[in-house]
Design a protein that fits this description.
Layout (H helix, E strand, L loop, with lengths): L1 E8 L2 E8 L9 E5 L7 H12 L3 E5 L16 H13 L2 H15 L7 E6 L1 H12 L4 E5 L18 E6 L7 H11 L5 E6 L16 H18 L2
Parallel strand pairs: 3-4, 3-5, 5-6, 6-7, 7-8
Antiparallel strand pairs: 1-2, 2-4
């Protein structure tokens, strides 16, 4: 069952897509953090699948401060151009604040446990959600720009799972080395790499989608949430 949730902040209101599990009262919740294409079908499908696994899934419209209601794909040059314009205009700190507001809004409707999972831009935001909010567990898929924020890991107190594509054209080897050196021995962090995989290997229907490694990563994420949000 899906619906739209309005989230109130001092800066204004924004919407979020919500998918609820068919059965069970007060399920654990997961905030799904968008890529650069907005709250599109890919993000809604992720929410629906999480709901099918018994989670209350919510995907906030983090581009609302720039242009509310962005819902585009990775299928045309014009959409890619629009996506990068949004990415370049996006305020990361404000985005984390909006995720924090989403966590606060959804926690009373949940078991009390709230996790977060993000992809691409959302992968960076998931890492910052782990370090700056009271989320109970976070998962980051191929976070872009994460290497610039690894110092924040000293604030990390809750479990974090990282998925890194070894051939990610948006997270080059030098950036990966910074990430690994800073994070691989952190007691709260589990880090998985995927040999031969490029950026967004878990985006179903995307150019670099790999069904086997997407299933592997998604299975690890699901097991992680079932353990940490129980």
């Amino acid at each position: 069952m899906s619906e739209t949730l309005t989230i109130n902040t001092p800066d204004g209101d924004f919407s979020a897509y919500v998918a609820r599990p068919a059965t069970g009262d007060n399920p654990p919740a997961v905030v799904v953090i968008q890529e650069i294409f907005g709250v599109n079908q890919v993000m809604r499908d992720i929410c629906d699948k999480l709901a099918g696994e018994g989670f209350l899934a919510v995907c906030p419209d983090l581009f609302w401060r720039i242009e509310p209601g962005i819902d585009i794909t990775d299928k045309s040059e014009a959409e890619w151009k629009k996506a990068f314009e949004l990415f370049n205009a996006f305020d990361v700190d404000a985005g984390v604040a909006d995720i924090d507001a989403t966590i606060d809004a959804i926690r009373p409707q949940s078991s009390g446990k709230v996790g977060a999972v993000g992809y691409c831009l959302g992968g960076l935001l998931a890492f910052l959600t782990a370090t700056r909010t009271d989320a109970d567990a976070s998962v980051s898929y191929y976070g872009v720009g994460l290497e610039k924020h690894v110092g924040e890991a000293e604030k990390l107190e809750k479990p974090l799972l990282l998925h890194v594509a070894e051939e990610d054209k948006f997270v080059p080897k030098e950036a990966q080395q910074v990430i690994f050196a800073a994070l691989k021995d952190h007691p709260q962090i589990t880090l998985h790499t995927y040999a031969g995989r490029d950026h967004a290997f878990a985006r179903e229907g995307g150019e670099h989608y790999d069904a086997a490694d997407a299933a592997l990563a998604n299975g690890r994420s699901l097991d992680f949430f079932k353990k940490t949000l129980a």
